[in-house]
Amino acid sequence: MEQREMFQFEKGGGVIPYDPPVHRDARPRLSRQCAMIVARLKRGPAFTGELAKISRKYTGRISDIRKEGIRIDATPVDRKTGVWKYELVEK
Q1: What is the pTM of this model?
Q2: Angle between the N-to-C axes of helices 27-42 and 58-67, in degrees from 0 to 180, rounded to the nearest 10
Q3: CA separation for the pair 8, 78 (Å, rounded)
Q4: Can you give the chain as a three-state secondary structure string?
Q5: Which of 17, 29, 40, 76 is deepest in the core (most CB within 10 A)?
Q6: Beta 8-9 vs 12-13: how paired, if at all?
Q7: Does 14 have pLDDT greater than 80?
Q8: Confidence check: pLDDT of 8 > 50
């Protein structure tokens, strides 16, 4: 699947959150979080703590991003503390 530089979010930009209970009013905020995560990962690998500052439910946002065809690799760094490294995977 081809990675996208821009996302589609109804009539604006961003990623449509796939979480069914997400209220329509919350979608722009979540879309913005997805864009921030992708922008951060474009600079290089990021770790759990850094992504959690962007979004408390960063794993959900990463799932949304992946569903848009952008590949993100997750590698455990320290399983005891739950630290993972996330990075974009080039085509």
Answers
A1: 0.70
A2: 80
A3: 35
A4: CCCCCCCEECCEECCCCCCCCCCHHHHHHHHHHHHHHHHHHHCCCEEHHHHHHHCCCHHHHHHHHHHCCCCEEEEEEECCCCEEEEEECCC
A5: 17
A6: antiparallel
A7: no
A8: no
- CB crowding 19-58: b at 16 or more within 10 Å, else e: eeeeeeeebeebbbbbbbbbebbeeeebebeebeebbeeb
Q: What are phi and psi of 80, to 5 degrees?
A: -65, -40
Q: Which residues contact residue 45 at a Cβ distance below 8 angstroms, ignoring those fewer than 6 apart?
A: 85, 86, 87
Q: Are strands 72-78 and 83-88 parallel, antiparallel or unpaired?
A: antiparallel
For residues 69 and 16, the answer to whether their CB atoms sit within 8 Å is no
Question: What pLDDT score was predicted for residue 17?
Answer: 53
Query: What count of other Cβ atoms lies within 10 Å of the Cβ of residue 5?
Result: 7
Mean pLDDT of 12-28: 53
